[in-house]
Amino acid sequence: MTTDSDRPGFGGVPLPGLKADEVFSFDEARKLLGDSFDPLPVPALPPADPELDRVVSELRRLREATAGLAHSEVELGDIADRLAEVADLLEPRVPSPADRLANMWTGAGTRRSNPVSGPENPLAPPVDFVGCDDGSVTATVTLGPVYQGPPGCVHGGMSALIIDHMMGLANHWGGRFGMTAHYELDYRSPTPLLVPLTFRCWVHETEGRKTWTHGTIHAGDRLCVEARGLFLEASVPVPGQPGSRSTVADGSE
After folding, report:
1. In what helix (H) or strand (E) does residue 219 lie, and over which residues does it extend?
2. Which of 250, 215, 216, 210 has the alpha carbon at shortest distance from 230?
3. By CB neighbour count within 10 A (0-12 exposed, 13-18 middle, 19+ buried), where does 147 fall?
4. φ and ψ at 236, to 5 degrees?
């Protein structure tokens, strides 16, 4: 059994879908840059359709502008009519849900369409991640009213969603692969909206097919959430690719 205290390196493997010269592996980063290096961002993937990125960017503007508008005295009738026109224009043209699901697994899997960091997903804040020289993956993000749970605080399910996705990315950074088998969180203090939040995840322990990964959310120096996850090497069928299976749930092929 190996723990994060005695493992010199996680033996990294590049994220599936990345070009060979785009490093996002803890082990490879140490070989190239030494034991200490500036945080490495997850390499961006070029859009399949730049116009889709534009559409989603505008949808995010609408998402933020419409959150919490009740009792605001903003006149929305004309806005609703115009949005209905856009929906009426788009709906007859889109492929079936099954075809879209298959399309999401072309290229780099769901890296561009996932609900946490996907630039093609209007639900995503989105969150940008970086790999660090201590073996962790971190992100700083400010969440607005659309993600509210308790008054003025981030919904606990949103915290869980981001950390779960981020743990998978930390596994990639550490050269581990798998799907979430068990996941638990301790909410230590309220997680505030509208302030920068620091997310951090790292591989804690490995044994055979099992990977234990930990994570935290801080608001400044205050600990808001602690998380622990167990991941197992596993596979599921890839939509639209008969006979093909994915080794992880969120982007590997």
Report:
1. strand 210-219
2. 210
3. buried
4. -135, 155
